[in-house]
């Protein structure tokens, strides 16, 4: 049985690559000085350079990097991860944040830092319910978040559209129209954010109504209807729907259904002796998690009682990390709350950008999300526990389903993907403007299309590399070097 470790908070640390006292004097350069900095960086690192990528002669084997990641994961789930990655070059790309980070690390950097998502591909954007219950659109995955050069996120996002365009059968001209749209939207949005007052920027968010307006201006009637269906589906994804789909009654008490290896209830993973200690362990878990919530949200959590726990396989790149779903009940059986405890390992960016300032990777994820999103899940928190093998594990906690929804990339035609590219570009710029210097970044990008064209070229070159890496993983499976298992 694992034991829970004390949650450690460092109020004198801020997001960054090192500890920095909150009392330290903060410089306040003028807008003109900030713009001058961006232009100076442009002189040192011309925007066209970003389009000149080629694999380094010392480039590491991508399968070796993936196996390095797999070493700390649940062994029996790693083949499922590889199976999901091998569905297509696009699904491979989704799981290959680490190899791409290694590639970006060899490139010259602007030094214009933001809180990076770290894995900003197009499927890591989506809608969710803000605390006021309105649906907002934002980056929705922060497992790899870390401060770093803004262009790393933009390059991963643009490359993801090139890879997805190929997956959908778009020709080179259609893909270029999509990829240049991503960067143009990012650049123009950053210019708009650079002109905003600080509080206006801090409160700014992109709501579903804004997305609907964009879709109505640029989408077809069929696309608008599909968008409305997707929004309605997202609104319906809440704890009640999870309760209906994922539970069954056992001796009058709801229990999470067993569907191994994708969903495995806790009693199937523990010895009888460990099961007897489970209630005490879970009380410790919630005490540690509770300390990371604000006082009002602690009061909300206290209104629910723990009922059941199961391990669940999630995502593509995340498969093999330890993810748990926790069923809780409030006033009665019609008042469920599903939480997800997801393991947070070191960011794939850390070998190249330095360690996080936070002592817990769960806290790193939560603080990164809070910094970049205008509205976050009210149950967002973190904790740390030691497993039966004596290994310290870090987790972040959020609601399992809270009106979450993602775009259906597999149904997009070139026009729909172009609309979505504009939305993602603007959304990433908003996240970066909150955490970085929007004025300096806007000055670096300028008003012309140099950066747009450079990243479109980079995206195609990197999509070629992604296909070679996908083939390398396929060959590794065929040779027996690694095992893959299809679960869908």
Report on this structure.
The model is unreliable at 6-21 (pLDDT under 50). The radius of gyration is 22 Å and the shape is globular. It has helices at 31-44, 62-70, 78-85, 89-95, 97-105, 150-167, 172-194, 198-203, 208-218, 221-236, 239-246, 272-276, 278-290, 295-302, 350-353, 361-372, 414-435, 438-445, 450-478; strands at residues 3-5, 113-116, 125-129, 135-139, 146-149, 206-207, 247-250, 253-256, 263-265, 305-312, 323-329, 336-343, 381-386, 392-399, 405-406. Strand 3 (125-129) and strand 4 (135-139) form a beta hairpin. The strands form four sheets. It has a seven-stranded antiparallel β-sheet, with helices on both faces. Strands 6-4-3-15 form a four-stranded antiparallel β-sheet. A two-stranded antiparallel sheet has the order 2-5. The protein has two domains: 3-8 and 238-399, no CATH class; 47-235 and 414-478, no CATH class. The longest helix is centred in the last third of the chain and has 29 residues, at 450-478. The chain starts with a strand and ends in a 10-residue tail after the last helix. It has 19 helices and 15 strands. Helices cover 47% and strands 15% of the residues. It has 488 residues and is of the alpha+beta class.
Would you spell out the secondary-structure blueprint of this structure?
Layout: E1 3-5, H1 31-44, H2 62-70, H3 78-85, H4 89-95, H5 97-105, E2 113-116, E3 125-129, E4 135-139, E5 146-149, H6 150-167, H7 172-194, H8 198-203, E6 206-207, H9 208-218, H10 221-236, H11 239-246, E7 247-250, E8 253-256, E9 263-265, H12 272-276, H13 278-290, H14 295-302, E10 305-312, E11 323-329, E12 336-343, H15 350-353, H16 361-372, E13 381-386, E14 392-399, E15 405-406, H17 414-435, H18 438-445, H19 450-478
